Amino acid sequence: MNLSIKLSTKSQIFRYFLLLFIAGIAVASWVFIDYFFIYLIALIGLILALIFWSKLTWRYLFLGLIILALGLVRYQFSLPKTDPEKIWFYADQKINFTGIITDEPDIRIDKTKIIVLAKNLAAGQKVDGKVLINVGLYPVYQYGDLLSISCNLKKPEPFSGFAYDRYLAKDDIYVICSYPKISLIKKNQGNYFLSQIYNFKNQLRNLINNNLPEPQASLFFGMNFGNRGGIPQELSDQFSATGTSHLVAISGMNITIIASILLAVFLALGVCRKKSFWLITLILIFYMIVIGFPASAVRAAIMGWLAMLAIYVGRLNSSTNALLLSGVGMIFANPKILRDDVGFQLSFLAVLGLIYFYPFLELKFAKFSSRFGLKESLLLTMAAQISTLPLIVYNFGRLSLISLVVNILVVPTLPALMVIGFLSLFLSWLFPIWGQSFFWPVWLIMTYLIKVIEFFGSLPWAALNL
After folding, report:
1. How far is 41 from 27, CA to CA, in rounded Å?
2. What is the pTM assigned to this prediction?
3. Are residues 241 and 178 in the same domain?
4. Residues 62 and 118 in one domain
5. CA dihedral 214, 217, 221, 227 (to 10 degrees)
6. Do 140 and 268 belong together in one domain?
7. Exposure check for the chain: N or C terminus, fewer CB within 10 A?
8. What is the pLDDT of residues 400-435, one digit of tens each?
9. Pairing between strand 94-101 and 112-121?
């Protein structure tokens, strides 16, 4: 008994410190605090902790002030420093510079977005920092291209209530330019491993485009590989109206649901819990390799894996500290995601929903039988939807009145779509002449998904704009 109380107390203290660090990051993301006062808070906390060291409650209470100060300092250290060696120093100027495309180009219907890491100004001045550049669809640029660029740099600005400047700042992008004059200097200047991954993804994109019609092709690629630029705007709006926008992005909510449903399905098929867990872990690792380890998807995969781990060990309510610790690790690496990365926030809340709401729903629906994990799929979807609904309404100003119903209809198809989709890609790569035949099951699932979204999204009362 004494041991359990001691362990419980340690767990609570650990959780207290994690929450204080998050609180420090949150406060600093809204209010800049002079470093003098931050260090003063830490010093007061240390002195009071030493004075009350013999009283455990007061000791940890005051040590928490040091953790709070650490969160404040960590966020403010992440703020950009402006000097002539930073590319954003030259905002609102026309400059010539060279830089390397550091990420996979984001191909949209009417343009392509590329992120360029600046290297040198034309005058020879070394510079550093990212620039988001809008270019046409042609010529085609690739990851690792070394470019000479002449453009007017601009600072991103908020629009229509969307904090576009903060959205880009979370990825350390503070300047943008549109349709500059570009000359290709040299190719293949990026990481060789990433180059091969992106080339492989382009081959998969071509296979999909050759064997699926639109909009199924763009939607399938966006759902599985994280590029939603080719999805028609009307269909994208219907996804938003039905509360299913998370399906067309590699979000933590999406991966959380897919990983958890796969676990439930494997268990229903008779695969032992341990083998199911490690099989899905390998699937997630392979998936991250295929899509090229984008930071948002890696964070999403970690969240999804934690949710699966909580179900695997069978102690959902004891997983809060593991979730908080992983969240703190991600926030420490990039403090800006706490306030400005909606994907991270949705991932976190989706896993919280699985930890706290799923056991409650499972108890309420215990009398209903399950076949092939269908009941678990529905309950997991409901838990994630309930926990993320307030954040979705707050960020997007839209309340979908049919979100839960539509998600229950379409989300259980995601694991089958992923498994059948990757199998179709593999077979069509081996036997390209029969590619369209292999993609028939994918077309059927995608058509079902699109028809459901279009039907419910077209209802006049589908969503309320708040």
Report:
1. 14
2. 0.82
3. no
4. no
5. -20
6. no
7. N
8. 888 888 888 887 787 788 888 889 999 998 998 898
9. antiparallel
